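ok trying again, last paste got cut off:
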Amino acid sequence: MLREWVEQYDRMNRWYARLFESKNTDERLVDDYYAFFTCCFHLKDWLKADAALNPKIGEAAESLVNRDPWLRLCADVANGAKHLVVSRTPRVDPTARLERGEVLVAPPNAPEKGERLDAVMLHADGKLAIAIMVAADCLREWNNFLAAWGLVVKSSEGVTP
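nice, full thing came through this time. structure:
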């Protein structure tokens, strides 16, 4: 079976869909986030390795991961999950990590009436981010990149972007 970059793209999208399936913010969901960020980061490697693609696409994918703030975070989370000690130069923070936390959801102009909800949080560079928002931004960046290179994805999951 010929393996193409679309296989990794589809896998990344399946992991992204799983982020919305859990009713609980537990360690299993945190693991699903790690799996998503790992697949998302490694899409660049698949684009670089796919012999059917113009090599410039792989080079541009590497450049994108090194300059886009969301994909830079994605790279550090993926590398941190893969290695006990990060030996490569981090893009943002070698200690970037995911964990369960809380987020305050409030109507505009009424933060005191907000509701605290469990969420997976991304810790990096002394800041907190809601992991689903970072994941959505990463996915958007890849879809924009693929569209810019004329790589419309036709897969079993449908046609995107």
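cool. The two ends are 25 Å apart (CA to CA). The chain is about 50% helix and 20% strand.
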